[in-house]
């Protein structure tokens, strides 16, 4: 009888252990592999993803076409831009602190910003500001885009949480589907997330705004070099990065946006300083080309390299492990294979080499010289006309004086 009791207890606790083990496995597994996007009721419940919105907009920055995970998995082009197993996008409204690793995103200003920033026409170019202008300290180096919590991706896709919710605040309405903007025509196809955020800032929709001035001012000198885009008008860049990405890891940073910014700047400084891999193999190649395969190799597969259509470097996404105790970024790690396959636009564009462009100083010089020449010619012309005018006046004076003399002199 005693033996049967022991056997019963062993079987009971074994079953309990298996259940908890399976629960833990399922919870982790729902963040990995192709099954992540094709959620069933069990995995949705375990991961608390019920009725969450798939951010299919991803790179397009436009309103998502497919709304839920199940609809996404059952749909096919042209209803969506990408097949389910090549998805690149975010899951809106996910619980905060639910992700596997970080991406530290850096960008190369010469590929994204004009020689001279115009506050009116370039307002929605979040990367750019007066501090990305030619000859500014942050204009020709890798600078901060953001720090992004990211799901582990064993499948051939990349996914991330965005506009997350926590006990402190729900940021999901800051996504374009939140419909907080009072402007008309917000359903048009050209109404992007960027325009939505500009609307929220212009209309002072406080539930989606952070106190940018208070956060940025203490770090202004470092921002000029390490994150010049953050000094954009209306604080649009820091507002976007916190509401979309920072909200999903806020507890790791003590729910403090200034702490989040300081960590991002520290990481950017660390990975771009002299002696770092990016300094040795990107900064020192500025103005030249470098083999794509070679660059991937020397960066030890820790980075996803993104190019424009001319195979010029646009962004570098550096994968960083997450400390299991603090939840903070820990160290560089090899990027998951799925993320590399989906997001490496240089490889997709079949770039053999990556160009590291510098500012087109010759164009700037030519433009400046032309302007100087035009101004000089205009000045010469003005002076010439003034001399002609003076000569005409003098001639009239001489003629008048001569006539007077002839009148008064005797014959």
Note down, in words, how this protein is organized:
The chain is α+β, with helices and mostly antiparallel strands. The chain has one domain (31-360): Ribonuclease T2-like (Ribonuclease Rh, Chain A). It has helices at residues 2-29, 41-47, 69-74, 193-202, 212-216, 220-226, 236-244, 257-272, 277-281, 292-298, 337-343, 345-348, 361-408; strands at 53-55, 88-92, 101-107, 143-150, 158-162, 289-291, 303-307, 313-322, 329-332, 353-355. Strands 3, 4, 7, 8 and 9 form a 5-stranded antiparallel sheet that branches. A 3-stranded mixed sheet has the order 1-2-5. The radius of gyration is 30 Å and the shape is globular.
Q: What's the total helix number?
A: 13
The CATH architecture would be: Alpha-Beta Complex
Helix and strand pattern? HHEHEEEEHHHHHHEHEEEHHEH
- Average pLDDT reading: 77
- What about the largest sheet? 5 strands, antiparallel
Proportion in helices: 25-40%
* Gross morphology: globular
What oligomerization state is this entry in? single chain
> How many β-strands, per DSSP?
10
CATH superfamily: Ribonuclease T2-like
Low-confidence stretches: 8-30, 32-40, 54-62, 66-70, 80-87, 362-376
CA-atom Rg in angstroms: 30 Å
Overall tally of structural domains? 1
Structural class by sheet pairing and helices? alpha+beta
CATH secondary-structure class = Alpha Beta
β content, as a range? 5-15%
Transmembrane segments: 6-25, 384-409
InterPro entries: RNase_T2-like, RNase_T2-like_sf, RNase_T2_His_AS_1, RNase_T2_His_AS_2
Family: Belongs to the RNase T2 family.
GO molecular function, one term: ribonuclease T2 activity
């Amino acid at each position: 009888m005693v033996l049967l009791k022991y056997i019963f207890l062993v079987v009971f606790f074994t079953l309990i252990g298996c259940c908890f083990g399976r629960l833990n496995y399922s919870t982790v597994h729902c963040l990995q592999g192709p099954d992540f996007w094709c959620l069933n009721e069990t995995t949705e419940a375990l991961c608390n993803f019920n009725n969450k919105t798939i951010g299919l907009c991803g790179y397009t920055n436009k309103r998502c076409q497919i709304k839920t995970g199940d609809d996404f998995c059952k749909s096919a082009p042209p209803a969506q831009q990408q097949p389910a197993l090549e998805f690149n996008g975010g899951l809106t409204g996910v619980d905060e602190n639910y992700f596997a690793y970080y991406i530290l995103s850096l960008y190369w200003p010469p590929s994204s910003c004009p020689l001279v920033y115009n506050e009116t026409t370039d307002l929605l170019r979040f990367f750019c500001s007066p501090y990305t202008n030619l000859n500014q300290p942050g204009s020709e180096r890798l600078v901060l885009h953001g720090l992004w919590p990211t799901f582990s991706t064993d499948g051939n896709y990349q996914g991330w949480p965005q506009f997350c919710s926590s006990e402190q605040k729900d940021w999901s309405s800051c996504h374009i589907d939140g419909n907080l903007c009072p402007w008309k025509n917000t359903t048009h196809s050209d109404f992007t997330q960027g325009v939505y955020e500009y609307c929220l800032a212009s209309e002072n929709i406080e539930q989606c705004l952070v106190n940018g001035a208070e956060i940025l001012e203490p770090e202004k000198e470092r921002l000029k070099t390490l994150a010049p885009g953050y000094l954009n008008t209306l604080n649009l860049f820091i507002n976007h990065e916190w509401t979309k990405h920072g909200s999903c890891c806020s507890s790791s940073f003590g729910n403090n946006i200034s702490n989040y910014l300081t960590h991002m700047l520290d990481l950017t400084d660390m990975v771009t300083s002299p002696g770092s891999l990016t300094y040795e193999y990107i900064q020192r190649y500025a103005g030249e080309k470098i083999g794509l395969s070679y660059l991937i190799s020397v960066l030890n597969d820790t980075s996803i390299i993104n190019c424009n259509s001319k195979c010029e470097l646009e962004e570098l996404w550096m994968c960083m492990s997450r400390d299991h105790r603090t939840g903070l970024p820990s160290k560089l790690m090899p990027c998951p294979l799925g993320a590399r396959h989906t997001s490496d636009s240089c490889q997709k564009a079949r770039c053999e080499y990556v160009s590291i462009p510098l500012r087109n100083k010759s164009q700037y010089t030519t433009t400046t010289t032309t302007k100087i020449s035009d101004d000089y010619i205009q000045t010469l012309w003005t002076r010439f006309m003034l001399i002609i005018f003076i000569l005409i006046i003098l001639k009239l004076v001489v003629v008048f004086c001569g006539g007077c003399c002839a009148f008064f002199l005797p014959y």
